[in-house]
Design goal:
Elements: E1 2-5, E2 19-28, H1 45-51, E3 56-61, E4 79-84, H2 90-98, E5 103-110, H3 128-131, H4 134-137, E6 149-152, H5 171-174
Antiparallel strand pairs: 1-6, 2-4, 2-5, 3-4
Length: 213
């Protein structure tokens, strides 16, 4: 049996550190000179005077230099990562630098994690999701109803509360003529997929058979 569904994922909430210790991110104004990788100063007198209070171990661009940047896009060439060894918290150092001239922004190097918790009350029973690292994917995407997923299984409950609203509908067959292959794919009335075991258009489990969702 092949079933087509539209799916939406929900992410897991994790409690972790807010930012990397002893590092900040600094963006400078467009009139400043580009800082080379592994520098110890910025070349901006006011900023360097503030940094002299600390033991700076590295100032490097966050991304490699990009030539001929589109002027309509953000200037990513002047975003730098500053590393230091002092005990001052990154948020405090960032606040001190943020008020200086030529500084667009200064902030801790935040660590981002999933912030959305699955609404499935049985999520904790689904041991396989953490094993395959599914929680990491939820920070990138929570799904897209425009993406069609084909699932190969022995059967599916089309009326299941977790699936009913997301089951794919083959509208050519749904709005077509019963008994005819309206979309010309070789399967008649395959509105929700095709049951290849029973060779019919009903993906629901056969009554009396073993069914595992």
């Amino acid at each position: 049996m092949v079933l087509i569904i539209n799916g939406i994922l929900y992410s897991k909430d994790l409690n972790k550190a807010e930012y990397v210790p002893n590092e900040i991110i600094l963006k400078l104004a467009s009139e400043t000179k580009i800082i080379l990788p592994h520098s110890f100063t910025t070349g901006v007198a006011e900023i360097d005077a503030a940094l002299l209070k600390f033991t700076i171990t590295d100032i490097s661009p966050v991304v490699p230099y990009k030539k001929d940047l589109n002027p309509r896009l953000p200037d990513i060439n002047r975003i730098y990562r500053i590393k230091y060894t002092d005990s001052i918290m990154p948020d405090i150092l960032s606040d001190d630098l943020s008020v200086l001239k030529h500084v667009i922004y200064a902030e801790p190097r935040y660590i981002h994690y999933e912030t959305i918790t699955p609404n499935d009350p049985y999520y904790s029973n689904q041991w396989h999701l953490p094993v395959i690292g599914a929680n990491y994917a939820w920070n990138t995407t929570q799904g897209d109803t425009n993406v069609i997923i084909a699932i190969v299984d022995d059967a599916i409950d089309l009326d299941h509360e977790d699936l009913a609203a997301n089951i794919f509908v083959n509208w050519a067959e749904y709005n077509g003529t019963a008994g005819l292959d309206d979309d010309f794919n070789g399967y008649v009335d395959d509105v929700h997929g095709w049951d290849f075991a029973e060779n019919d258009n009903d993906p629901n489990p056969v009554i009396g058979s073993l069914f595992i969702l």
